[in-house]
Amino acid sequence: MTDLLLDPAIRTWVFLPIVVITFFIGILRHYVSLLLMNKKKVELENIADGQYLLRARLLRENGRFLPKTSFNARRQYLCAEETGYLSKAQQRPAKGPNPMDPSQMTEMLKGNMMNMIPMIVVGGWINWTFSGFVTTRVPFPLTLKFKAMLQRGVDLVSLDSAWVSSASWYFLCMFGLRSIYTLVLGSENAADQSKAMEDQMAMTGSAVNPQADPRAAFKGEWEALQMIQHQFAL
Amino acid sequence: MSDKSSKAEKKNDECYNTAAITNNVEALEFGRTCQSCAAGMAAGILGLTGFQGFILYFISVGIQAVIWNVKSQGNWLSYFPERNSFTWSHGNGLLTFVLLWVFFYGMVHVY
């Protein structure tokens, strides 16, 4: 079946170590990031804002089960001109997250370091140490297009495209181990390089509006609550 | 009939408990990963090639869907918003499956 015989030493010293190293680097990454990252501090005001918004939304959605007087009392409490939380919150001065805040800068730097160091160091090391081996064969036929993807570092024209080189095996492991990390470390893990890359891309994409202005949310909720026609459902 | 109306109501009222849903989704993800690991190992050790391996994967998906449905007592929609149990998270599942399949196939049959 196999038209190419591989030395079993390649299995012991290349194929298996790549899997093990990739896996344990992920675990290590998780714990180092736990060590370095301090928990995001949540401000009391933000929590209060969130809860008030939630409360207004619940009132809007389920208010029809309340008698009219109760509904109006609650609405008054939330939207009154001077004292209601929603109205007061709209008048608050804007304070977006300050990008020059040094603590946030260090956080971002740490995050980037956590991404870049394993990427460059480990990836480079694996490519350097284990380069140029044909490690394994995928058990399903693939078209020639996959040759470039699966046979990095091995430029053999006549080699069937189902064979996988060591560098590509490393990448395959990196992406495939994601759900196994979830299994081992729980869903909030930081082991995953590919996910971290995606996050970073998403972050650069959303850098234009880093955090939605809470005042806009308050204004929207306030308006919606003012507009609603109360109708007793029971 | 009553089932349908309650479904419609649920969508309107958003009366799902988000924490519970998150927990359920995590449980599903856990199950899916375990299942694809097991299927991948089996396929690799058995030395299946080509479509046979994928057929094994989908058989295991089917078995798992049946188990999930039994576990939820036929009431899938009272635990999850709208997904059905066959089409859950195949992206990660297939990735894991292929990785383990290739790995065990390589370990056992290539060398």
From TrEMBL, chain A:
Chief place of localization: membrane
Gene Ontology BP term (one): protein folding in endoplasmic reticulum
Cross-referenced SMART domains: DUF106
The keyword Transmembrane helix is annotated on this UniProt entry: yes
GO terms under cellular component: EMC complex
Keywords, in A-Z order: Membrane, Transmembrane, Transmembrane helix
Bilayer-spanning residue ranges: 12-32, 113-134, 167-187
Similarity annotation: Belongs to the EMC3 family.
The protein's name in its UniProt record: ER membrane protein complex subunit 3
Species whose genome carries this gene: Caenorhabditis tropicalis
Lineage summary: Eukaryota, Metazoa, Ecdysozoa, Nematoda, Chromadorea
From TrEMBL, chain B:
Location, primary (coarse class): endoplasmic reticulum
InterPro entries on file: Emc6, EMC6-like
GO CC annotations, alphabetized: EMC complex
Transmembrane residue ranges: 45-68, 88-108
Alphabetized UniProt keyword annotations: Endoplasmic reticulum, Membrane, Transmembrane, Transmembrane helix
Pfam families: EMC6
Superkingdom, taxonomy of origin: Eukaryota
Subcellular location: Endoplasmic reticulum membrane
Gene Ontology biological-process annotations: autophagosome assembly
Bilayer disposition of the protein: Multi-pass membrane protein
Stored PANTHER family: ER MEMBRANE PROTEIN COMPLEX SUBUNIT 6
Similarity comment text for this entry: Belongs to the EMC6 family.
Protein's name in the database: ER membrane protein complex subunit 6
Organism: Caenorhabditis elegans
Gene: emc-6
